[in-house]
Amino acid sequence: MLAASGTHLSVSNAHRRIPTAADPSTVSRALTRMTFASIVHAITDHAGRPMYGLADRPHQHSVCGDCGHLSEISAPAARVPELSEVATAVFYSTCDNCAFGAADRI
């Protein structure tokens, strides 16, 4: 489901993509377990909701604080000496669409 989406999904979006009538709480628990198993990772969107994506390769994220657009950044992952795993960074900023749209409204 996450591989087919090509993006990060919220619990409700993941639930809608499952062909069976699984309960949303079951989907949430499954994604949480997969997060602890490092199969998926969770980042927080601009509304405070977890968004789940595959943990198949190190990558960073950018989240627009205005519209919530989520992008993957193909920057190399950082290795932090105090951590045993590759650190994931999430950058919260304003996407180009919102930035240029805001300039048009001035």
From TrEMBL:
Pfam short name (any one): FUR
Key word Protein transport present: no
UniProt keyword terms in alphabetical order: Metal-binding, Zinc
Cofactor note: Binds 1 zinc ion per subunit.
GO molecular function, one term: metal ion binding
Cofactor(s) listed: Zn(2+)
UniProt binding sites for Zn(2+): C64, C67
Protein name (Swiss-Prot/TrEMBL): Fe2+ or Zn2+ uptake regulation protein
Organism listed in the record: Catellatospora citrea
Taxonomic lineage of the native organism: Bacteria, Bacillati, Actinomycetota, Actinomycetes, Micromonosporales
